[in-house]
Amino acid sequence: MSNPIYLDYHSTTPVDRRVAEKVYDYMVNNFGNSSSIDHIFGDRTQEAIKKAKRQIADLINSSPQEIIFTSGTTESINLVIQGLQPSRIIISPVEHKAVIDTCQAMAKKGLAEIIWLKVDKKARIDFNHLEKVCSQGADLLCIMGANNEVGNIYPIEEIGKIAQKYHIPFLCDGSQAVGKIPVNFEDWGITFLTISGHKLYAPKGIGALVIRKGYRLQPLIYGGGHQNGIRSGTLNVSGIVGLGEACYLRQLEMQEDESAIALKRNHLQSLLQSKIPQLVINGDTENRLAGNLHISIPNVPNSAIIARIRHKLAISTGSACSSATVSPSHVLRAMNLSDDLIEGALRIGVGKFTRDIEIEKSADIITNAVEKIFQLTSIYDADKFTRI
Ligand code: PLP
């Protein structure tokens, strides 16, 4: 069987070979502990970390001193929300669960009150409501740079201005945005920005948190006092080198790569639209990530499609799977989409390694599955859909 096609780049990206080579070098040759101050192995890794901070800072226009390393965005978000100890938090309902569940855990303990922003059917934020709740004061505002399901790009600069106007610290989950669209930490009024290595062609388990000068967070992890005592634990030097290199490459190649990705996404979109006339495209198609295509096919449950194509094509339903149940996406629920659209929702993520031939094959795989399901539904009733 030929290799399955990967179109799930929002979930994770393959590591760029050039990044992997650097990572390998710092795993096998320059493997020193950056806390070792008595020999050259330590010196080399300290230098490498300094360089990585510079590369990351250059991509997002921050100062290298504002960067600390974490395992990824989930940890960074927890560090900000729990470490800042806000009592009134404004969040968008289409944030990642890392934000929503952390805030809800704080609320459950009676430590914080959550103010939910309003979003429309395209997951766009209601700016009048945002301004109104900010004017009533808060200790933290959480809005992502780009959405991991429908791909919306949020107007971070405008949001940052509102946050600054009302003196509210602004946490921007940048995991889907950094490396795909320009992000300007210094000029856009962001107080805390998160970056995930595995969303921009670096390894999993490495991320950065950018903390604006003058802000101090209570640590979640205590120990050797690494990273100014904010996040103890021996630094993941090879991961950090990989993240730095990936940011450097993104800075050089982002614009060209993302334009090419958008063309491929648009091609896939038109192929699907021409073959599946009832196809609905979700989210803010005017402002979405180049690689994002979020569709719903009414009357065709996404689980039925996935069951048919999973060995050939990797795309996602966006549903959250816990041990016993599969719950529909909270993002689509917050957008107030009909059950039909939610049940038929599929997230497709195109990336820089996606080839034209894969786009064409993917369109065929999806449309063939949809046709088969339609044929079967004229024989079987809708309840039997998921069992085919
Ligand atoms: N926030 C968003 C928008 C994401 O897409 C993800 C990853 O899926 C996360 C947070 C969690 O990031 P990480 O895997 O780096 O912890």
TrEMBL record:
Domain Aminotransferase class V intervals: 5-359
InterPro entries registered for this protein in UniProt: Aminotrans_V_dom, Cysteine_dSase, PyrdxlP-dep_Trfase, PyrdxlP-dep_Trfase_major, PyrdxlP-dep_Trfase_small
Cofactor(s), names only, from the UniProt record: pyridoxal 5'-phosphate
Gene Ontology terms, MF aspect: cysteine desulfurase activity; iron-sulfur cluster binding; metal ion binding; transaminase activity
Top-rank taxon: Bacteria
Catalytic reactions of this protein: (sulfur carrier)-H + L-cysteine = (sulfur carrier)-SH + L-alanine
Keywords: Aminotransferase, Iron, Iron-sulfur, Metal-binding, Pyridoxal phosphate, Transferase
UniProt family annotation: Belongs to the class-V pyridoxal-phosphate-dependent aminotransferase family. NifS/IscS subfamily.
Protein name: Aminotransferase class V-fold PLP-dependent enzyme
Source organism of this protein record: Cyanobacterium aponinum 0216
Taxon lineage: Bacteria, Bacillati, Cyanobacteriota, Cyanophyceae, Oscillatoriophycideae
